[in-house]
Amino acid sequence: TCDTGDQQTTAAVHLKEPAATIVERLKDVATYEGEDVVFECLLSRETAQDAQWFLGDVPLQSNEMNEIRVQGTRHSLILRKVTLEDCGSVSFKVGQHSSAA
Q1: Could you tell me the CA-to-CA distances from 61 to 24, 70, 82 in Å, in that order?
Q2: Could you tell me the pLDDT band of residue 37, with boundaries at 50, 70 and 90?
Q3: Residue 87 included in any domain
Q4: Where do transmembrane segments lie in this chain (predicted)?
């Protein structure tokens, strides 16, 4: 705001969060049935954008079988005690960017 006493003008600043990109992509993992598996993605920046993990086409949430962690720019998915039914594509999406393994 600029105020000269008898006149006043006001303006606003609006910010948009720059899109995060994936700098370290998912890597394929081979393991034994009953073991835990860890997938990790590293982003270019910390972001408030929604990031989502998928097993096949199914969106994942943290529960007793899946643990989703965010530590700064590192996003991790731990699949607990995998079975043969867990074989397939794991993907991570943030904004318009995605990675799969």
Answers
A1: 22, 13, 16
A2: very high
A3: yes
A4: none
pTM of the model: 0.80
Strand residues in 1-101 grouped as ranges (E): 2-3, 8-9, 22-24, 37-43, 51-55, 58-59, 66-71, 74-79, 90-94, 97-100
Tally of domains within the chain: 1
Looking at the predicted structure, is the pLDDT value of residue 58 above 80? yes
Domain that holds residue 53: 33-100
Is position 20 within any domain? Answer: no
pLDDT at 35 over 90: yes
Note whether residue 44 is domain-resident: yes
The pLDDT tens digits of the residues spanning 81-91 come to 999 988 899 99
Amino acid symbol at 73: T
**Distance, CA of 71 to CA of 47 (rounded, Å):** 11
CATH code of 86's domain: 2.60.40.10
